[in-house]
Amino acid sequence: xxxxxxxxxxxxxxxxxxxxxxxxxxxxxxxxxxxxxxxxxxxxxxxxxxxxxxxxxxxxxxxxxxxxxxxxxxxxxxxxxxxxxxxxxxxxxxxxxxxxxxxxxxxxxxxxxxxxxxxxxxxxxxxxxxxxxxxxxxxxxxxxxxxxxxxxxxxxxxxxxxxxxxxxxxxxxxxxxxxxxxxxxxxxxxxxxxxxxxxxxxxxxxxxxxxxxxxxxxxxxxxxxxxxxxxxxxxxxxxxxxxxxxxxxxxxxxxxxxxxxxxxxxxxxxxxxxxxxxxxxxxxxxxxxxxxxxxxxxxxxxxxxxxxxxxxxxxxxxxxxxxxxxxxxxxxxxxxxxxxxxxxxxxxxxxxxxxxxxxxxxxxxxxxxxxxxxxxxxxxxxxxxxxxxxxxxxxxxxxxxxxxxxxxxxxxxxxxxxxxxxxxxxxxxxxxxxxxxxxxxxxxxxxxxxxxxxxxxxxxxxxxxxxxxxxxxxxx
Length: 476
Known about the structure:
InterPro entries: Glyco_trans_2-like (IPR001173), Glycosyltransf_2 (IPR050834), Nucleotide-diphossugar_trans (IPR029044). By secondary structure, the chain is α/β, with parallel strands linked by helices. The protein starts with a strand and ends with a strand. Mean pLDDT is about 80; it is low at about 205-210, about 295-300, about 415-425, about 425-450 and about 465-475. The chain has helices at about 10-20, 65-75, 95-105, 125-135, 160-165, 175-185, 205-215, 220-225, 240, 260-270, 295-305, 305-320, 355-365, 385-395, 400-410, 450-465, and strands at about 1-5, 30-35, 55-60, 80-85, 90, 110-115, 155-160, 190-200, 250-255, 280-285, 325, 340, 370, 380-385, 410-415, 420, 465, 475.
């Protein structure tokens, strides 16, 4: 295990942290400690009491901050498990051992320690995380926003998962913990709160501890994090969704073998959805297209003259739209987006249909939502990318993607006048509320509550009434 400690100043705090790591119950020859000095003046030094395998490195001058120092320390560390510690945190004697025992039991675990202030009874460190853990039975009943429980201080991540998600973003600055936790969550990480992994802050000024341990402010979430984090959806405005780096949904549409009218019917209905927070991937052999006249005949033999013309027209229609990308093979996962939607080409969706599908998927907490009609057409599929990335690692030989995802996170099937909810391993699950059948897939629309019409009638009646104290109401 490698412990990465970013530090800026505070030589006394570094001394106490390293002394506590030297007294750990975890075997010393299996522990590596990397202290990253974030250009402190004068430079930090290693104390005499420290772990046997400990080194001090200076962060590069091309950045600054905790995220920059952690990313550089993770690059230099050699352990299979990366454990983060702040330079003013003093871990208890079983801190590293408590983290390691989970990582030896399951490869996808991300352990969350508990950091307290000088007075453990106050427990002001990460209060939002403690409330979330308590309300979800130790994150056992967490929903699609489980990444909000991740905090960088006193946590441990498998190296392979750290590298697979792209690692910490050293340029993000404040909020990099929450953004990294979001990517870990979409990659299928299992967050485990470990109550034995306890550490204590030694800051003399309580405000310094509180400023680091509270959740990101609303202004930071909506102004910076919303560009790279589509969840929570309340933090992203419809205008910001149009220019966001990471969309909420990635949509896969097959273009080969269909006319330009069929492709436009599907893509235009998706892009015209109010506040559409999505990107569309058109799948076709685009590399074979060429405008050179002497090679047109060769391409026409490979694709067919009609297919070649249709693909050229499709490409000309969406070449200038930044929300449309052209890909050779269908995407298997939408990472880092939380959802991947596969729509049959030629289907025209009504406004707000995608939002309705996401709401149904979040309600069922299923890894796959299949929506089909009474015919034999291909169903629309909404994949939860967290479930797909986990299924990629546990899929058995001969098992389909749908079966693998259903085994890991369950499958939710919606048909005309019928719906079926499959739990993990094919087991039953509580039946959801009654579903209003859809006559056709092309006429999908979010169901309107029945009480809405009644409320409108009451509001209209009140608008035409005048109330006088002590007298009956009279209509105008």
